[in-house]
Structures are given as structure tokens and as C-alpha cells.
Amino acid sequence: MDLSNSSPVITDPVAINQPLLGSLPSNLMQYSVMPGGYPVPGMNVSVNRLKIGEAIVSGLLDAMKSSSPRRRLNVAFGQGNSPDEDPAYSAWMAKCPSALASFKKIVANAQGKKIAVFLDYDGTLSPIVDDPDKAVMSPVMRAAVRNVAKYFPTAIVSGRSRNKVFEFVKLKELYYAGSHGMDIMASSANYEHNAEKCKQANLFQPAREFLPMIDEVTKSLLQAVSGVDGATVENNKFCVSVHYRNVAEKVLEVRPVIDWDKGKAVEFLLQLLGLNDSENVIPIYIGDDRTDEDAFKVLRQTNCGYGILVSQVPKETQAFYSLRDPSEVMEFLNFLVRWKKHSM
Ligand SMILES: O=P(O)(O)OC[C@H]1O[C@H](O[C@H]2O[C@H](CO)[C@@H](O)[C@H](O)[C@H]2O)[C@H](O)[C@@H](O)[C@@H]1O
């Protein structure tokens, strides 16, 4: 893989149409300093603690406030209005209909084909909460995912580190792609399905050379936010999240720019599982944030399967369908299992 033009970027996985990145100091978008940093081959990058610190403290908080999901929710619906009463939401739903209401149509297209299920974690399988360490999955959701995995190859594709998302999900029978797909592990249970291929690609880490740099960035960010009340830093192995939900309700992410994202991870997993026959396979990807759009885009562009966006607000999306929240995601997963049982 050619990493010669790689650099870390800051991404905001929550805000889809917000000007957060545009308003960031450019040195945060692609900071480029070598002294004291790690000379990672092919990378024009190391860490300037001072610049990161300055930028976070001076530039980001305003941008974060303006792109706050809570603020957008209020703007979108007006205080006190439910999505159902909002004409903008109804108009959006016409373009991105409920996957529950469209369930019959979805499964009619899947008749005689194999379904593969891809699930984002935060905001999809667990509700968004203030403390990222407390974003646990409910036992009923776990049961729903376990059942789905009995009938369909199922993968979790998360921005979290692979280990952390596994600690939350705790299901060995799934495939896990952590760090936005930059850390893919085929489960031992799934070895039986495709033994040779899984052994070859048991662990796939396309951004491995960035590890020392990400650790260095984590240290710098920890230092930079140490004076910001409520801000925390989460090392997700191949990317780092700066949480400012408790400062201004958002998360900011630093990760390597390599030609790899959740969309590529889905393609990789489909190939790994021998499910890349688009004529006969229907991948279903459910996710709630901007990083999931890469996966929705792949499904749309290859005209294969369905992206389902979890959102209570109208958003520009490449997904075909929508679900409002994790409880609707669970309902959808239960529908899939019921349908499969009856069609066997
Ligand atoms: O790809 P995902 O599985 O959706 O992970 C994306 C980020 O999710 C987590 O942050 C988000 O959820 C937290 C818990 O509900 C919430 O406190 C935070 O404000 C959200 O942004 C995770 O902590 C991040 O590291 C992931 O990048």
C-alpha cells in the first residue's frame, strides 16, 4: 500500500453537513513536524504539541458548539416538536424511508440471496451517552445481534479499538473491524466457514506503521486537553478521539489518511467471507455517523445491498433507508431473524 502522501487528519464522525473541518486551523488538518516525532516511513508527519494544544483550546470549541448534535436537533425540529410533526423530517423520510416500514420490500429483493449484516456500534447498537466508557449494549440488543449472527454472517464495524468494541459486544461469533476498519479480525468461530481465507487474513491492519505516531498524538492530545473541563481523550489504537460532548457535546478524531475506511473494510470482509458475488449477496450496513457514509457509498455505487442510516434528524446521506434509534435497529434485526426462520 502506498502511504507516501499520508498524513493524519482530524475527522468529525458525528456532524455530517457541518463546517467543523473548514473552521479548524490548517495546521491541525495536516500538521507536519518531524523533530521529536517518529520518522514513520512514507509519512510527512509528526507531532507539534504546542500547535495541537493551541488549536484545540482556541479554535475548536466554537466550531464544536456550532456543530453540536443537540443544537442541530433543536434547529431541525424546533423546541418541543417531535420528528413526526416536522415537515422537514417528513420530506427527508420520503427520500430515506424507514427500513421497518420498507421491510417487505427489502426482503423481497433478498429472496434466494445471501444477506450479510454490518453493524456500527456507537449510536447504532448502543445509545449515545455522555461517558464513552459507559456506552454499554443492552442484553436484549446483544441477544438480537447473537440471533442475527446465527443466520447471517455478521460484522461490527466501529471507530472504537477492536478490543474495546469486543468488550462491549462480547460475541465471539462475529467479525470485528475496529479503528474505522483499520483493524480487522476474523472470529475464531467463523474460521469454520472459510478456513483458508480466514487464516490468511485473520488480522488485517493496513495502518500498522502509524501506531507509534498515534501513540505520540494521544500523549500530545492528553496534554493539550488537560486544562479543558469535561474533555477526554480516547486512544482507539489506529485513531484517537477527543471527546468534548461534556464540553460542547461532540467528538473529534485524529486518524491516518490512508486509502482505507469503513467502506473498504466492508468490501474486504465481503471478499474474506467469499460474499463478493454482488448478484447473489445483499449486504446490509447499519450506522449512524459520517464515517458510516463510506460504507453506504460503497453499497450504493456497487448497486449491492442497503445502507441504513440511524438518525432522528434529516441528514444528507448515501443510505437507502433509515431507522430512528438503536431500539428500531433492534426491531429491524429481530424482523430479519423472524423472516429468515419463516423462509427456511
Ligand atoms: O464507529 P462507532 O462505533 O460509531 O464509533 C464512533 C465513536 O463512538 C464513540 O463516541 C460516540 O459515542 C460516545 C458514547 O455514546 C459518546 O460519548 C461520544 O460523544 C460519541 O461521539 C467512541 O467513544 C469514539 O471513540 C468513536 O470514534
TrEMBL record:
It comes from the Eukaryota. Pathway: Glycan biosynthesis; trehalose biosynthesis. Removes the phosphate from trehalose 6-phosphate to produce free trehalose. Its cofactor is a divalent metal cation. It is an enzyme of class 3 (hydrolase). The keyword Hydrolase applies. Keywords: Hydrolase. Its EC number is 3.1.3.12. This is Trehalose 6-phosphate phosphatase. CDD domains: HAD_TPP. GO terms for molecular function: trehalose-phosphatase activity. GO terms for biological process: response to cold; response to salt stress; trehalose biosynthetic process. InterPro entries: HAD-like_sf (IPR036412), HAD_sf (IPR023214), OTSB-like (IPR044651), Trehalose_PPase (IPR003337). It catalyses: alpha,alpha-trehalose 6-phosphate + H2O = alpha,alpha-trehalose + phosphate. Belongs to the trehalose phosphatase family.
